[in-house]
Structures are given as structure tokens and as C-alpha cells.
Amino acid sequence: MDFWDHNLGECAASNSPLLQLQLHTAALFPQQQQNLTQLTKPRCILHQDLMAASRVCFIHTVRGEMLISDDPEKPGVLQLLQEKFASLQDVFYITFGRWYVHACIQFEQSTYEASIQKLADYYQANKQTWPYMVFSVPPYDHTCSAPEGTVWDASMEKCFPFVQENESMVIGRKIASVAEHAFSREGVPVIDNYNFSIGMQDAHISVERSFQGKQDCLHFCRPGLPEMDIWYLYESMKSLDVSQAGQSAEGETPTYPCTPVANI
Predict the structure, then answer these.
(1) Which one of 35, 61, 65, 229 counts the least CB within 10 Å of its CB?
(2) Residue 13 carries which DSSP code?
């Protein structure tokens, strides 16, 4: 998470190298699995003061199809986490959607809707066991607001403000509304980062602060909009009533070992 002090350390999702590798590959396209050393390893940040003993499992997959698999031999990311990594009181904070839009105007709407519905159906079938889930829609893409004849590039000093009712905005609203419609029926909180971020063209990492010298006009730094995101996550956890989850009869909360991610 961008607001975390990485000098304090990060934990591997599991102290098992085999499970760590399985989770790593489950979240990637087949062609990416050949270059694992160039991609970020799964990791955890243990913060047990946010809400009792519940950990927040932040899942940002490129595509929603990676979450749920119909092949029991190759479980999806969410299925694998629940089967091998998570505790019953943990909260799954899931986000995807940006990679269903290409060149700002080409929207794979039917595929996105199918992925959202599959996740909603999976939650409905398993919520008695895994009741705590939050979904976040992707933020507005400020690279899609370039004035006509202007080409955005990552070295620019500022991100473009949104353009009222352009095609990118229409698509963004569809992405948000599809998620809200599917998950509201199941009682899953939806954090609408899209509407929060529309007017926040200045709320991006600047070229000067970027470790690659590139402007972040995509809000790729997830979970973006950190102050608002944390607040709405906290509110969502309260609505899910997770304040006592994971506590023993004596009121004690569990502790979790941390294997530094660099050692896996």
C-alpha cells in the first residue's frame, strides 16, 4: 500500500514457498508466469489496530476472471486465498475493472459484467462461511481527458482535468453502476473510487515523487486516494459488523507470524 512505510517491512502471504508461488502465478496471465522475478510478489502488511483481529486482504487483479475458477485443480486467486491463506474473520477488499477498457473508449462490457456477476454469485454461495467482502470500483482515468490533438505522456507535470460527459466518463459510470447493482443485493459494500476521483486530477504522484520518473494519471497506486479509501474501508467494515470477529471468548485477538517477503 502506498501509504505504508516500507522500511517497517512487509510479510509474505505465506511462509510456504510453494503456496507463495501458487498465489503469485494464479494472479497472472500465462505469458507473465515466465517472468516471475520481474513482477511484484504477493505480500501482506499486518495492521491489527484497524478493526479488532480482522486482517484486510487487498486483492487487485488485472482481470476479474482470475478470482474464481471452475477448475478445482487450478483455483482462482480468491478461492486459493480462502482455502490456504485466510482466516474466517478476514476481510477481502477486491478491486478490478480498469483493464476492461482499452484506448479510453473500447469497453469489454459483457466480459466485465460476467466477471462481476460471477463474483457476486460466488459470494452469495459462500457468505455463511466467508461473510466479509468489500468491492472497490476503479478510479477515473485522467489520461483519457487529454484535449483533442494532445497526446498524454508520463513525463507531463500535471494530469488533465476530466471532461464532462466524454466517452471515458460514460464508461466509468457503467463500470461503477454494474458493480453497485450486483453487490448491493448481497449486502456487499461498494467503495466508489470512481466518483471520488473524477475531480482529483491533482491527487496523483508527480514526476518528481515517482521512483520511475513518470506521472501517475491512471491512479494506478492502489489503493489510491488513501485517506478517503481508508475511511470508507473502515466504514464498510463497521457495516459488515466485523468488530468482534476473531476474538476468543476471553476477548483476546490472534497474532500472526511475519516472514519477510524478501526471504521467500
Answers:
(1) 35
(2) S
* CB contact at 8 A, 115 and 65: yes
Distance CA 201, CA 146 (A): 12
Q: What is the DSSP string of 10-36?
A: -EES-S-HHHHHHHHHHTS-TTGGGGG
Collapse the DSSP code of 216 into the 3-class scheme (helix H, G, I; strand E, B; otherwise coil) and give the result: coil
Distance CA 16, CA 43 (A): 13
Helix (H, G, I), strand (E, B) or coil at 196: helix
What DSSP element (H or E) covers 182? helix 167-184
- Under a CB-based contact definition with an 8 Å cutoff, are residues 217 and 139 in contact? no
Q: What angle do CA 223, 227, 230 make, to 5 degrees?
A: 60
> Over 90: is that where the pLDDT of 52 sits?
no
Partnered with residue 92 across adjacent β-strands are 57, 133
- The more confident residue out of 153 and 264 is 153
Q: Is pLDDT larger for residue 78 or for residue 224?
A: 78
Residues 6+ apart with CB under 8 A from 113: 178
The residue written with cell numbers 494532445 in the block is: 150
> Count of CB atoms within 10 A of residue 46's CB?
13
78, 220, 98, 82: which is closest to 159 by C-alpha? 220
Distance separating alpha carbons of residues 14 and 25, to the nearest angstrom: 14
| Cα(137)–Cα(222) distance, integer angstroms | 11
Cell of 48: 491489527
Question: Which of the pair, 211 or 145, is modelled with greater confidence?
Answer: 145
Instruction: Please choose, from the candidates 61, 108, 52, the residue with its C-alpha nearest in 3D space to the C-alpha of residue 81.
Output: 61
Distance separating alpha carbons of residues 221 and 3, to the nearest angstrom = 10
| Angle of helix 167-184 versus helix 109-126 axis, rounded to 10 | 20
